[in-house]
Design a protein that fits this description.
mainly alpha, NtrB
């Protein structure tokens, strides 16, 4: 197993080096010369000429435009600049990546905890009561497929606060996987275990906490893991819509500034944080999984 892990790590490293090499080659300038008119002009003069409707770079080689995509070295410089001061705050449009990430994680945590506080007890009740399951199933089936972002206009209209609306959207997108998995896990507890508890006259609350909850815990954690993945996906799009703060707003703001290195760096940060959140829930899931 250790040998397999080592070979997998080496293969991943080789793929990363290959990807960086392809990226470097693809973003190298091709040596094409700029247009004659633009050769003797400064960047400000070129921009001014473009505003007047005259593009002095029109005759430039096509490869010059391709080189506008950042190279790996430019990406490394942008990442270093962001990581050197991750919590700086120089106004609404100039906040560090760490500060933006903290805003996003705070919204996700609040929306997710509210969803867990509603979904787990309700899922427990639905799983234990066939009558409640049949009564609530039509509502769940109708509300579940609705995109979380579709709720955003309604949230902004009623709540009138963009940050709380983002938390509400996280709540909506997190609640369904947790609710359905909890109900499924509770309903799937083996009848023999429940019969033994009933024979021993175990009180309902104790039966729920000491028999049903441990038995359904792996399924419940699976739903919570799925919910966290969806919540992290949705928060980026929600923050792009509402603006203000957050990693989604950071991506959109840097795009408006035409800073592609910062956009790519933020995308990588989103991926790394998502992976860490998933690893955390995978550890929790492994801790409650039992051999049947």
């Amino acid at each position: 197993m250790r040998s397999l892990n080592l070979r997998a790590a080496l293969l991943s490293l080789a793929l990363l080096v290959l990807l960086l090499a392809v990226w470097q080659v693809a973003t190298l300038p091709s040596g094409g010369s700029p247009a004659p008119a633009a050769a003797s002009m400064t960047a400000e003069e070129i921009e001014y000429a473009k505003l007047l409707g005259k593009d002095p770079t029109a005759g430039a080689a096509p490869a010059a435009a391709r080189s506008g995509f950042p190279t790996p070295a430019q990406m490394a410089a942008a990442a270093w600049a962001q990581l050197a001061s991750p919590f700086h705050d120089h106004g609404p449009n100039d906040k560090g990546i760490g500060l933006q990430l903290a805003h996003s994680l705070g919204r996700v945590a609040l929306g997710y905890l509210f969803a867990a506080a509603v979904a787990v007890p309700l899922g427990f009740a639905i799983g234990m009561s066939p009558l409640l399951y049949r009564a609530l199933d039509p509502f769940i089936q109708i509300l579940k497929p609705i995109s979380p972002l579709a709720w955003m206009p309604l949230a902004l209209y009623t709540i009138k606060d963009s940050s709380i609306s983002g938390i509400f959207v996280i709540f909506i997108c997190s609640v369904w996987p947790m609710l359905i998995n909890t109900a499924f896990g509770v309903a799937g507890v083996r009848r023999e275990w429940l019969n033994v508890a009933r024979t021993l006259e175990v009180r309902p609350m104790r039966r729920a906490l000491e028999v049903i909850l441990p038995a359904a815990a792996p399924t419940i954690l699976t739903g919570m893991r799925i919910s966290m993945g969806i919540a992290w996906l949705v928060i980026v799009a929600a923050e792009m819509l509402v603006g203000g703060t957050g990693i989604g707003y950071f991506v959109w703001n840097e795009w408006n500034n035409l800073s592609l290195p910062n956009v790519i760096f933020a995308i990588l940060v989103i991926g790394v944080v998502g992976m860490l959140l998933d690893l955390m829930f995978a550890r929790l899931q492994k801790a409650v999984t039992y051999a049947d």
